[in-house]
Amino acid sequence: MKRAFTYLELVVAMTIIGVLAAAAMPAVRVIQKRERELELKRILLEVRTAIDRFKQAVDAGEIEVNELDQLGYPADFDQMIKGVGSKKHPGQNLKFLRRIPVDPMTGEALWGMRSVQDEPDTTSWGGQNLFDIYSLSDGTALDGSEYSSW
Q1: Predicted confidence (pLDDT) per residue in 93-120, tens digit
Q2: In 3D, which of 30, 104, 45, 111 has the Cα closest to residue 78?
Q3: What's the predicted TM-score (pTM) here?
Q4: Of 22, 77, 139, 149, which is most buried with the most CB atoms under 10 A?
Q5: With contact defined as beta carbons under 8 Å apart, do 85 and 62 qualify?
């Protein structure tokens, strides 16, 4: 006698698999969101470190900037990517970032920027002295905070 699954057994098995898959989907979404949040934190730290390294290079006299305009901070992303001439090593170009990173929350290489002169929570940039960046996403993190406040 041949052993085989009946149609009813297959329907029951597929129903159970479907219920289990549906139960797992929210967990998968949370894991994916957490991964994007970790990537956002990593990028923000990377850019913060690049800005700090630029400022340290200015303070150490390695880079000459117009102190009235820049106050020792990069003018914008382009200046950190294209680099600036080194005073200590003529002909050498000091670079602080390879490229503008992509915001994992928006999927674009666009960021909100703040200058030294701006208020800490402003959403407009004065156009010089890049001091801080923030995500342009209007989303909310798993901890309830807004990505733009990171």
Answers
A1: 889 999 999 999 999 999 999 888 877 7
A2: 111
A3: 0.78
A4: 77
A5: no
